[in-house]
Amino acid sequence: QECSKKQKNDDTQSTSVDALSSNNGSEEKNEFDTLANAKILLSDCLACDSCMTVEEGARVFQQNQKEFFRILNLNKKCDTSKHKILAVSLCPQSLPYFAAKFNLSVNEAAKRLCGFLKSLGVHYVFDTTIAADFSILESQREFVQRYQRRNQEEHALPMFASACPGWIRYAERVLTNLVTSHICTAKSPQQIMGSLVKGYFAKQQNLSPDKIFHIVVAPCYDKKLEALREDFYTALYNSAEVDCVLTSGEIVQIMEQKDVSMKDVTEVAVDSLFDDLKEGDVVRHDGKRSDGYLEHIFKHAAKELFGVDVKEITYKALKNKDFQEVTLEKDGETVLRFAAAYGFRNIQNMVLKLKKGKFSYHFVEVLACPGGCLNGKGQAQTEDGKPDKALLAQMEEVYTAIPVRLPETNVHVQRMYQDWLEGMDSKKVQDTLHTTYSAVNQSTSSLDIKW
């Protein structure tokens, strides 16, 4: 709505505002009607020059707590044969927020969050770390293949990470195919989790994908837009891989509405996708504030391409702490040059260098939020929309203390490659774990804003 005020065309403005604030007047009132609607401020935007279409705005508006409780309430009223199975997937970068905010260990936070969600009527609560395992492994393999093709294929390198939906949206809506052709085709952890829940898990439980309502708890608002992508929707079952994204902050709003303290909630072990197993202690990937694509791909490439075992990675900060580089030298020559570019300003500088042909990096981990995923706008923000620096520092401390597990060591992942995905080089791997990115031509119904 803030964006639409900038429009010169009053008709377009009123249409978009109505779409965003529409509410079915006949909708039955319930105890959760007082929940605040999700607010995305102008300051939360990536500040690209192309905004959401009216249709997207209306659909994002549905990605809030009320949609979650609409399904919960339907389950209470309708015949059991029409029930939806509610599955919630927790992002690893959300757990430190709950741990720091409520002064809990990260394992306590995961179990109490699981207990709270199940007390509301959720059937399963999963950890998305396994989805990040798949995403990192596929990204590693793709980088090595691109590196080997670099002399034959113009757009093979550099390769950009594909895990951040804010960056992806900016690249597709604003930048040209010159940039999108460099983006890794591996799906993000969120969308691979969607494939796991609506594909693998649904099959294990003998459920049709449309019988599962899949919610993801994430650190940022851009994940809501990612869930709406057409390539993450199965027309055959009329089912999206992720039906609703709630930010960590929106979960806290629900707790406040219910007058529940995390410290009073019973601990319940987080579910596993496999039979009746439960998850153990929380683990993470290498990386200070994200899923660690740079570190994992760098170590893998060093070993696969140059036979070098890299134990510790040394970051070199350049213009600012959110633009850092990592290099590998062999026989006096720099053979790998990676970078981490966080925040819109660094992304702009990076793209400018690419367009000028002055780009020396083989891989860049790109994240839209300064400071990375822990600093997502859906958590660790004060009421006026500014970062809560004290809370963020606590979150970083919590996240760093979580034990690291290499994706290659996850036996479930290795088994699923063979049993579910029909081998690592199969067509099913490409269809399930990969997607494509390309420049999008904006339609006339979009809100085009020049910043």
From TrEMBL:
Residues 12-25 have a biased composition (Polar residues). Residues 385-441 form the Iron hydrogenase small subunit domain. Residues 1-28 are annotated as: Disordered. Keywords: Nucleus, Phosphoprotein. GO terms for cellular component: nucleus. The keyword Coiled coil does not apply. The keyword Transcription does not apply. It comes from the Eukaryota. Residues 1-11 have a biased composition (Basic and acidic residues). It is found in: Nucleus. InterPro entries: Cytosolic_Fe-S_CAF, Fe_hydrogenase, Fe_hydrogenase_lsu_C, Fe_hydrogenase_ssu. Interacts with LMNA and binds to the farnesylated C-terminal domain. Belongs to the NARF family. PANTHER family: NITRATE, FORMATE, IRON DEHYDROGENASE. This is Nuclear prelamin A recognition factor. The lineage of its organism: Eukaryota, Metazoa, Chordata, Craniata, Vertebrata.
